[in-house]
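Shipment paperwork, digital attachment
Item: protein structure file
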Amino acid sequence: MRAPTVGSWDERPVDEYVRVCHEVTMLESRAAELLGQIDAGGGYEDAGYLSTTAFVRHRLGVSGGEASRRVGEARALRQRPGIREAYASAQIDRPRVSLLLAASKISDESFERDQQFLVDTISGLSMNDARRAIDYWKQAADQQATAADAEHLHRRRHLHVSETLGGMVRIDGELDPEGGQIVLTALRSFTDSQQRDSTDDRLPAQRRADALIEMAADHLAHADTPATGATRPQLSVIVSLQALSGAADAPCEFDDGAVITPETARRIACDSSVSRVITDGDSQILDVGRATRTIPSGIR
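Attachment content:
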């Protein structure tokens, strides 16, 4: 490739970048078109595969989910020439193609009627505005189908929380639009106020993590949660007197076995209920005292 000429507008990096991105979009469109031809003509069988998805997965080394997505996109584009032509000319990119193809499932008749209007509309919008425009069209096209689509998203909600080998806790999941906005708004209510503090040097992701912890701690401390055995849900720490005194090798852990530092245990103990347990040796319990607050209620 010829080196850019200084002062030449056509060869400036910003213009070159936009041009290359448009070329990438057109190449993605061409790849989808070729995959559609392979799928429709049985080319995957000539290549020795039982399905187009298996062909894509093996030859490109992508996951099964990604292979299925590509095949589904290629099949849908064969049925939507308006979207296919806009994609081939880079009028719309792949994310907008996905939006339109998903919307086409709401009402085939309405989409055929409005296809070109939708393509022209979202091609000039930001991704967020494009999604909003498509959502409004879906509601107008078929309210019942739109409600079913919303219920489908609601059923897809999930949250996985697991402890890693290093002791960290990993959180991963998806929320439906309504639930997601509730969580986002709650997190912003914490992080927005924290950003006003000029001494706060935490990263945005760290502020969000701390906000989530603070919300969970507030729930445990103040929520009207059902009690089990006359005790509300709580964070339990098992710690020896030696650990509280600073011994590094003394027992100090959560009740699920996760080891913590004595410093962490002392910080948690600053506002907690403490139960004295007297043992004979390492395991035989001789006496369990009543739980008492480390900070009396009057002072708190």
